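Task card 7
Instruction: Convert sequence to structure tokens.
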Amino acid sequence: MSTNLARQFLLREDVVFLNHGSFGACPRPVFETYQRWQLELERQPVAFLGRDLSERMRVPRVALSAFLGAGQDDIVGLVNATEGLNIVAQSLDLQPGDEVLTTDHEYSALEKTWAYVARRTGARIVTVKVPMPLVSEAAFTEAVLAGMTERTRVLFLSHITSPTALVLPIGPALREARERGIYTVIDGAHTPGHIPLHLAAMGVDFYAGNCHKWLMTPKGSAFLYVRPELQGLINPLVISHGWTAESKQPGARGAFGNSPFIDELEMQGTRDPAAWLTVPSALDFRRNNGWEGVAADCRELAQETSRRVRDLTGLPALSAPEFCAPQMVAMPIPDPGIDMLEFQKLLMDRFGIEIPCFKWQDHTIVRLSVQGYNSRPQMDVLVGALSDVLKL
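Output:
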């Protein structure tokens, strides 16, 4: 990996930062764009937030929709994917006995979201176990379909899982759910900028993703996609200036001239939209740095490091390579005999390594992210540290 690319990021030089997957890291040119937007906001806040905001919000929406393969009126800018998925989960008219089908690989915040919705509505959460190691699309699809019943109203899946860093082969399950009239809700928090997306072609009903992770915008930038035919189902979590009393009538427009879906969710009173406004700059950064090649190098380095750790520990991978996230891999390690937060702190204190360490089911995991600022010498530090601490 190029040290020149590392210089384009703001990360501390004394930290081996191997945790892009948690919150991302923003390149210097994109962060400078962010600061320019913030400065412009502070120089004339009334014009920025009162007269010009709707048009300013449209520009990143148009740029991102083209990148995601979606209609420009079918995505809306939000703060994070969890917000978008909460909007969907709390908009659906679930009744007592309805079932929300999901897997045992979901992000904990969204497990809590659906638990909250179930408590409020009387719906029931049905969790299927993903066959592990994940080596077959057919086996995954069979497990999901086996959980579907006549009471299933929602299929909720991660596209890339957070704890296990797997790319779930969701396509066949989405198509089957669509045929059965089941809403499909996808957590794409780790997906934009990480794997190619064409949301319209996927046939998914609802999809939320973060821009601050692998697309590398500043924190607080995300989107929600809703299939056009279903946008009338969506209600904002906060009623603010974009809402109108006629919003559910056919052909209604929002208070700022866009669809109610866009205006009700985007125009949420006073907030700093600068992170969302940097989306075009983040897309430019990728183009200017030949990101297809950068991503390929990252994937090679991630897989190479995963093999080195497997050789060290003797523990098998969680999936076949084709189901592993390209730039992120969950690597099983032997139980170190201490709390995993303490283990994570030990790696930071002794070796300067920032990397998530946790237990998931019966696995002890170190989750590696490889981004364009990382290098093979940094992977050497990680492998050496694991060998030292685990006495391997």
